[in-house]
Specification:
This protein has about 210 residues and is mainly alpha-helical. The protein contains ten helices and two strands. The chain has helices at about 1-20, 45-60, 65-80, 85-100, 100-115, 120-130, 135-150, 155-165, 170-185, 195-200, and strands at about 30, 35.
């Protein structure tokens, strides 16, 4: 079972990275149950306000498709640093990661977190690269920075779960994944990884 959980964790890491690569472009917000382009006027909500709206919508979403669309919009906003140059560097880092070259992505992300230390996604992507390189403790340290800036970052919380599984700390892994599920009820891990951990630990499903 432990080996199966570790295998699932690596598959999940690839899925999380794929999600981050797939999303991009302008964020959207929902009004009257429909997804609509974010306003471009001076009255448009701030990035923080849009994130608050999206997380609120996510809690009340009625279908998988609706939930997935909101989650994609959250990722879009997370991937916007407000600095086009930094955003360009991030796209370069993601492309390198997609080719399975984390060691080459690391110096790019080192530069990103130095230039934009207040941007949670810079730390999150570096944590992902460090995880891919087997640098689990350094990855956890970066995740701490992510969660200090964005406590609702379900991707980072899921990352803690993966690292804890790799370290054989399945109870801590389940706690992190359940916390991620609290912010994102459409978390894909609820189908396989979370139930597997619950069975192994003898925990009742939430």
């Amino acid at each position: 079972m432990a080996m199966a959980l570790r295998t699932s964790a690596w598959h999940l890491a690839a899925l999380v990275l794929g999600l981050a690569i797939a999303v991009g472009g302008p964020a959207t917000i929902r009004a009257g149950g429909l997804m609509q382009p974010a306003q471009s006027t001076s009255e448009a909500p701030t990035r923080a306000q849009r994130l608050d709206e999206l997380f609120s919508f996510l809690k009340t979403a009625k279908s998988e498709d609706e939930g997935d669309a909101i989650v994609a919009d959250i990722w879009k906003l997370w991937l916007q640093s407000s600095d086009p140059a930094v955003d360009g560097e991030m796209q370069r880092a993601i492309a390198v990661m997609a080719h399975g070259l984390p060691a080459l992505a690391l110096p790019i992300l080192d530069d990103i977190v130095a230039r934009a230390p207040g941007w949670s996604e810079g730390w999150n992507k570096r944590a992902t690269v460090l995880f891919m390189m087997g640098e689990h403790d350094r990855s956890l340290a970066d995740i701490d920075r992510v969660l200090a800036l964005e406590p609702r970052h379900f991707g980072a919380l899921a990352g803690i779960g993966l690292i804890r599984i790799a370290k054989g700390e399945n109870r801590e892994a389940l706690a992190a994944l359940r916390k991620a599920l609290g912010y994102n009820p459409f978390l894909k891990e609820r189908y396989g990884l979370i139930p597997a951990l619950e069975r192994e630990l003898g925990e009742k499903p939430l």
